[in-house]
C-alpha cells in the first residue's frame, strides 16, 4: 500500500485485494512480490523466535540514492505471556486496529511531500544480535535522512502477543 500511495511504481502495476476486511493495493510485479514474500516469511520466523525489533521501509532516490522517507514499524513481543495479565483482544478488535493503520497510511499522502524524482525502496530488519539471518541478506547502514527531516508518529496496534508502533520520517525541501 505504501508503494502505491507514494508512487514508487505506476498505478497499473497494482491490483486490489481484500485483506483485514479492507481493500488493499498490492503489486502485480512478480519480482517485487517475491522480494516482499521472502521478507515477510523471515519476519514471521523472527517473530516466532522473538528476535525482531523493527522493520523499516526506506524510500530512496533511484539516481542519487538519497533517503527520502523511512517508514518504521517497531515490533514489541510479549516475552513472558504466562506471567502477564493480558486482556485477550477479539479478532475484530485487532482487524479494526490494522484497518485504522492502513487508513492512516493512505491519508499520510496528504501531508507528505510529493516525491519529485523516480524512487525505489529497500527493507531493513533490526533483530537481536543472535538472530539467524539468511545468507543472501547483507548488513546495511541505517539509511537515515541526513537533512531537513520531519517525523510523524502513526497509530499503533497490538495483539495479546505483540504490539507494533509506526512512524514515518521524511525529508522536506527548503525552497
UniProtKB/TrEMBL annotation:
<dbReference type="InterPro" id="IPR036570">
    <property type="entry name" value="HORMA_dom_sf"/>
</dbReference>
<dbReference type="GO" id="GO:0005654">
    <property type="term" value="C:nucleoplasm"/>
</dbReference>
<keyword id="KW-0131">Cell cycle</keyword>
<keyword id="KW-0132">Cell division</keyword>
<dbReference type="InterPro" id="IPR045091">
    <property type="entry name" value="Mad2-like"/>
</dbReference>
<dbReference type="GO" id="GO:0005737">
    <property type="term" value="C:cytoplasm"/>
</dbReference>
<protein>
    <submittedName>
        <fullName>DNA-binding protein</fullName>
    </submittedName>
</protein>
<keyword id="KW-0539">Nucleus</keyword>
<dbReference type="GO" id="GO:0003677">
    <property type="term" value="F:DNA binding"/>
</dbReference>
<dbReference type="GO" id="GO:0007094">
    <property type="term" value="P:mitotic spindle assembly checkpoint signaling"/>
</dbReference>
<comment type="similarity">
    <text>Belongs to the MAD2 family.</text>
</comment>
<dbReference type="GO" id="GO:0051301">
    <property type="term" value="P:cell division"/>
</dbReference>
<keyword id="KW-0498">Mitosis</keyword>
<dbReference type="GO" id="GO:0000776">
    <property type="term" value="C:kinetochore"/>
</dbReference>
<dbReference type="Pfam" id="PF02301">
    <property type="entry name" value="HORMA"/>
</dbReference>
<feature type="domain" description="HORMA">
    <location>
        <begin position="1"/>
        <end position="168"/>
    </location>
</feature>
<keyword id="KW-0238">DNA-binding</keyword>
<dbReference type="InterPro" id="IPR003511">
    <property type="entry name" value="HORMA_dom"/>
</dbReference>
